[in-house]
Amino acid sequence: MPYLRPVPADQSAPHHGADTAEATGERPVPEQDPRVQWAATLAVIVAGALTIRPMGLSGQGLAVAVLFVVNAASLLARRLPEHRVPPRLALVWLTFGVVAAAALIGVSSSGTSYLFAFFLAGHIGYRLETRPALILAGLCSLLCGAVLYLSLGPEQDPLAWTFGLATGIPVLIGIVNRTQRRAVRAAIEAAGSAERAARAEARTAVLTERGRIARDVHDVLAHSLAGINMQLELADALIDTGDLNKVREAHEKAHDLVKESLKQAQWTVHALREDTLPLPQSLAAMLASSGHRDALTVTGTERGLPAKVVQNLLRIAQEALTNAARHAPGGAVDVELTFAAASTTLRIRNRPATGEVGAGSGAGSGMGLIGMRERVALLGGTLTAGPVAEGPHRGDWQVEAVIPQ
Question: What is the DSSP string of 50-61?
Fold first, then answer.
């Protein structure tokens, strides 16, 4: 019966559930120091052995000795771990202990036999659910009270036999301790669940950040290095023709692509550091470096946007311009940035190619468009990409990203 106030876990000796908790990864539930419970149990047994009489090897003394051993065994069984004793077996064991405690009170003529009933009643409240605990504690009180009444007789002071009715009262202490321990266990489990959820959330954030970095690396390296490689291959091919002017032109384009790659790398660093950049000015600079000056049109009232919105829109514009240069060389490019009340819209539109499409342009891997869709999805917006079907821009290729406010 845990009848003493629990002490902090750092002052307690390892309890029976410590190994189990470590094996399952669960946090142990702080509870009463088992050394205190062992000391209390042994004190009751030693006090009974010294005071309960008669105790011998024959007659009434033998009956008292046998019941004393049974009561001592029932009391020592309190230290059995809860997970090793099924509820039904615990009910049978405690019921048998209550009957043995009442019988010991009736058979013995003196001593502290009533302590077994008190301690067992307290453990009943701790080990069993509330309803069966109260019923069994009530049975303990009735049995002990009846035994004292019958052994003392009605002419004896009523206070003596009514004392037996109080043997079931400690069940309330046991119920309170059991409730407190369950509350502590529930709090520990809730804390563990919250900790696991926080770890899962942190891992998700790490994976999301890795995806963002992967998209940035793709945007900077895949397109830039592919363009530089194309120009260098072209220069190698032109060397055999002896046309040095075209060779120089290819090398100049390769140098321009290197410079552009350095700018894109700087944008990537800014994106990773979440530095806030002015979107219209950054778009204008990007278009100028791509050879499309005065291609930006801004409508609506300009407002500040979160850093992640600015960086993702810049990446989408960069991807669309790179695709336009690869698949529609020489085609004019228009970029529209619209600030509406409920959204921000970015449109990149390029006309059909006027120059020769390089042999390495092809259909592409599709990763660029996938990356743009992922960026817009992270911002809760929508992205459409494809040829314009009607209107003054019919036949142009358009990428439109709409980001809600």
Answer: HH-B--SSSHHH
Which position has the higher pLDDT, 101 or 230? 101
Q: How far apart are CA 326 and CA 236, in angstroms?
A: 20
- What type of residue sits at position 10? D
- For 179, the token pair is 């409730």
Contacts (Cβ under 8 Å, ≥6 apart) of 214 = none
pLDDT in tens, 142-189: 999 999 888 877 777 777 778 889 999 999 999 999 999 999 999 999
Amino acid at 311: Q
- Angle (nearest 5°) at CA 100 between 99 and 106: 90
Q: Are 52 and 104 in contact (CB under 8 A)?
A: yes
pTM for the structure as a whole: 0.52
Task: Give Cα separations from 302 to 297, 305, 312, 344 (angstroms).
Answer: 12, 9, 17, 10
Helix (H) / strand (E) element for 160: namely helix 158-165
Task: Compute the distance between CA of residue 50 and CA of residue 379 in angstroms, rounded to an integer.
Answer: 80
**Residues pairing with 346 in the sheet:** 337, 401
Q: What is the pLDDT of residue 330?
A: 79
Q: How far from each other are the two terminal CA atoms of the chain, in whole angstroms?
A: 63
The CA R_g of the chain, rounded to the nearest whole Å, is 42
Q: Give CA–CA dist 383/371, Å, rounded.
A: 11
At 291, phi and psi to the nearest 5? 90, 15
Q: Are the CB atoms for 369 and 385 separated by under 8 Å? A: yes
CA-CA-CA-CA torsion sign (361, 297, 372, 215)? positive
In whole angstroms, give the CA distance from residue 302 to residue 300. 6
CA distance linking residue 354 with residue 127, whole number of Å: 87
